[in-house]
């Protein structure tokens, strides 16, 4: 395995960061191996009149990209590629056929994978193998993205080289779980791809199937001053702590962790994960009154300059900030901004609009929510705020313990292909908080209940079911 | 037999005798519990993972969910890509 002639490099098991030049497969000449005139003259293997229509709009077209890649692979030549050179040609052909017939010619799923892993590879096969032999086997490999998708160009180039050499050269950056997705390789190349990824890039493959899916986090304190905890560290530690769940499937269905550093929710944890971690704070929003005055005087551009160039007129703090506060917890007397902090619902609008004047509090941690996404029962749903605040300190053992509790309950009680959110709906939020050992709180109540019957357990009622009938009758004679 | 061997045998019995050649973990766990009632998910998963590594069991993934199977029963890697298969 590895690049022919450079195999020894892989045997060293070196820990230090590898440069692209250490592991590159293709030369710069390989990457610039066709001219625009050659592209215009290039005829892919199959005629694609319907797909060609997609190139005519004003937007970038995946069809144009695929044609470039098809030509590129022809010029690289089969001798320098480990799966069929014409994979992209045949991909264009099968997509054209599907457009024409209005149905897919892909089958997905199967046994393929890397040894010991129950996820990360999704078998994909074409059911028109005579017509499109180069995509007869066209498996997807999900690659665990680096935290917050922070990768340098060395990493990206090495990843793309592997994808080109051992796959179709087509990637999806990024899949909806965040993975770097290699689209299209053969069964024989799966183990070598895994070897190259782990040994050259120090990178694992991601989750699929009834596994923990690849955890995903926002950019956090790496670049963002709103981050209320270290999303990168928590995502990494949780990924490492839950390796067995990530690679060896025993859940009823998929399970997702997502880590948002603040309530802006840049990875949409609240809507897209079974267990969402959202940064928050317990104390007051920090206010710089001088900076507020500068915003009012239009000396600092609103929204961090994000609205620059738009003709919105002068900044009006009353209309644009105070009146838009969803809980009405802000006041402006013409000189001073005040916030009734206990009423703040963390919508982030004021902080986003005036980031130099307002900052999240200093006493920070995470809110934890459960059960977003339940597509089978009644469509997509948002997760439920269950733990309003928890400190998030490395190595995040409290969060790990909570996750294991809920996963153990779900494994025990969940039906096959039932998401955690559906289990919570079926068993009730009351059961969930009992499992987690969390007291019920008014903030968990979304609306007055429609069912008047509440069944208490004896242990929940002071004195239990036993009572002194004599005492009762002394107050309630027959 | 030791406990692990008992669980191995229960997994093999469940996976070899049913009509379905691929089965969910939860169903396999329920099958093992019929023979060994005091076992649990983590113990069975641990043994099943070893059997996967040894090539006795294999995963079958649809992409969205994953099942287990006894290697050699039902669809194989070689056959899984056949047109119409």
Task: Kindly describe this structure.
- The complex is a heterodimer of chains A (478) and B (85).
- Chain A is built from 19 helices and 15 strands.
- Chain A is α+β, with helices and mostly antiparallel strands and 478 residues long.
- Chain A has 3 domains: 194 residues, Alpha-Beta Plaits; 165 residues, Sulfite Reductase Hemoprotein, domain 1 (2-Layer Sandwich), CATH 3.30.413; 74 residues, Alpha-Beta Plaits (2-Layer Sandwich).
- In chain A, the strands form 5 sheets. A 5-stranded mixed beta sheet of chain A has the order 7-8-9-14-15. In chain A, strands 2-4-6-5 form a 4-stranded antiparallel beta sheet.
- Chain A is globular, with a radius of gyration of 28 Å.
- Chain A starts with 6 loop residues before the first helix and ends with a helix.
- Chain B is α+β, with helices and mostly antiparallel strands.
- In chain B, 51% of the residues lie in helices and 14% in strands.
- Chain B contains 4 helices and 3 strands; from the N terminus they run αβααββα.
- In chain B, strands 1-3-2 form a 3-stranded antiparallel beta sheet.
- Chain B is globular and about 40 Å long.
- The N and C termini of chain B lie far apart (40 Å).
- In chain B, 35% of the residues are buried.
- The model of chain B has no long low-confidence stretch (mean pLDDT 89).
- Classes of the chains: A alpha+beta (478), B alpha+beta (85).
- Chains A and B meet through strand 2 and helix 16 of A and helix 2, helix 3 and strand 2 of B.
């Amino acid at each position: 395995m590895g690049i022919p002639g450079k195999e020894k490099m892989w045997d060293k098991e070196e820990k230090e960061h590898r440069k692209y030049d250490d592991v590159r497969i293709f030369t710069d000449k390989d990457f610039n191996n066709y001219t625009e005139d050659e592209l215009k003259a290039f005829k892919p293997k199959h005629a694609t009149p319907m797909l060609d229509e997609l190139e005519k709009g004003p937007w970038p077209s995946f069809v144009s990209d695929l044609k470039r890649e098809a030509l590129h692979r022809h010029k690289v030549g089969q001798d320098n590629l480990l799966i069929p050179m014409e994979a992209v040609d045949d991909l264009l052909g099968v997509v054209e056929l599907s457009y024409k017939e209005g149905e897919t010619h892909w089958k997905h799923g199967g046994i393929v994978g890397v040894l010991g892993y129950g996820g990360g590879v999704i078998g994909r096969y074409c059911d028109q193998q005579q017509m499109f032999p180069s995509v007869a086997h066209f498996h997807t490999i999900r690659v665990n993205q680096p935290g917050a998708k922070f990768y340098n160009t060395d990493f990206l180039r090495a990843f793309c080289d592997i994808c080109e050499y051992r796959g179709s050269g087509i990637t999806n950056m990024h899949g909806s779980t965040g993975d770097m997705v290699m689209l299209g390789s053969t069964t024989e190349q799966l183990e070598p791809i895994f070897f190259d990824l782990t040994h050259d890039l120090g990178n694992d493959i991601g989750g699929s199937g009834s596994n923990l899916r690849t955890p995903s986090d926002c950019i956090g304190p790496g670049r963002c001053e709103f981050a209320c905890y270290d999303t990168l560290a928590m995502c990494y530690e949780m990924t490492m702590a839950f390796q067995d769940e990530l690679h060896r499937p025993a859940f009823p269905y998929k399970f997702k962790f997502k880590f948002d550093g603040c309530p802006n929710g840049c990875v949409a944890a609240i809507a897209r994960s079974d267990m969402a971690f959202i940064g928050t704070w317990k104390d007051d929003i920090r206010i710089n009154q001088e900076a507020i005055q500068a915003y009012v005087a239009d000396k600092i551009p609103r929204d961090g300059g994000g609205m620059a160039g738009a003709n919105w007129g002068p900044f009006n703090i009353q209309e644009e900030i105070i009146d838009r506060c969803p809980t009405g917890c802000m006041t402006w007397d013409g000189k001073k901004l005040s916030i009734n902090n206990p009423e703040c619902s963390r919508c982030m609008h004021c902080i986003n609009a005036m980031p130099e004047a307002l900052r999240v509090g200093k006493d920070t941690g995470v809110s934890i929510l459960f059960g977003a996404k339940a597509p089978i029962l009644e469509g997509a749903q948002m997760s439920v705020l269950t733990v309003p605040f928890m400190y998030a300190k490395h190595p995040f053992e409290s969060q790990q313990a909570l996750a294991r509790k809920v996963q153990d309950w779900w494994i025990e009680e969940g039906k096959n292909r039932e998401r955690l959110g559906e289990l919570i709906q079926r068993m009730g939020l009351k059961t969930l908080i009992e499992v987690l050992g969390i007291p019920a709180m008014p903030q968990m109540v979304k609306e007055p209940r429609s069912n008047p019957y509440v069944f208490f357990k004896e242990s929940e009622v002071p004195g239990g079911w036993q009572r002194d009938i004599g005492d009762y009758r002394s107050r309630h004679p027959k | 037999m030791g406990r692990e061997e008992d669980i191995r045998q229960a997994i093999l019995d469940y996976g070899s005798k049913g009509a379905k050649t691929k089965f969910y973990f939860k169903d396999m766990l329920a099958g093992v519990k019929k023979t060994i009632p005091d076992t649990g998910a983590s113990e069975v998963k641990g043994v099943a993972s070893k059997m996967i590594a040894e090539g006795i069991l294999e995963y079958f993934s649809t992409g969205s969910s994953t099942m287990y199977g006894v290697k050699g029963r039902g669809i194989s890697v070689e056959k899984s890509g056949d047109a119409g298969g």
